[in-house]
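The authors assume throughout that readers already know how a fold can be written as discrete tokens. A single example would do more here than another paragraph of explanation. An entry of this sort, consisting of the sequence and the corresponding backbone structure tokens, reads as follows:
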Amino acid sequence: MKLQAFFILSCCLFPFLAFCQAGVSSTSSSEYSKLNIGFEAGASLPAHLFGKAPASGSPANPVVQRLWNALPGFNLAVHATWMFSKHWGVQGAVRGNVNANDDLRETNDVISPPVKITSEGDYYNWQGMAGPFVSLPLTKKVDFTAQVLIGVLVSSSPTITQVDYGNGLPFNSTFVYHTGSGFAYSAGVGAKYKLDNRFSLSLNASYTGADVRYPSYSITDAGNNGGHPQTIDSPSKMAVELIQVSAGIVYSF
């Protein structure tokens, strides 16, 4: 459903921008820079199900399946844009995000014996995407920009520690999900303010979504395997949804 909405939005956005572009073509200059390199930094805001969707598959314990909520974090982005005309081009972007988890500490007394679960660490994800880009002049110095990108998102998750209190004695298990990846899609809009012929300031807001598949996890069981980690080949999935708001600088060649 999310992916369908993304493509519907994309199909509506670019014809609308093409219509707007037709209205400004006659008044805009034919001069433009073909290659633009930008660097941006800002906030990475978790949206909807990020960190909340239960991991399908394993571990078998339903409490451990829950990956803890992601919190607002930080993002960095580097993007390169090649313009085919003054208004239309293609953009490639590499982004990195860090989102802490809420370090939720939970005790499940329904399961016998009771289980205490904690999590630590951060969500790290890296995105590599490319797609069409449009730039429309609003004034002599300000341009409206928009892009629709697809690619891949690679993600790591926090470490989950489970403590079982069987017979009153603690029994520790540590779960580490191995790095996962999935198809990613992103749509964003922004503005660019020209300082001179080479440098511009940029502001961008985008939505990014992906369904990440973690292929396996490692478990270190203090009682079963002498504290040595063993890998369990049982896939888990989690929805990653981010709203990224960033500002930066663009250099035009």
Observations:
- Residues 2-252 form a domain with the Porin fold (CATH 2.40.160.20).
- The CA atoms of residues 215 and 235 lie 4 Å apart.
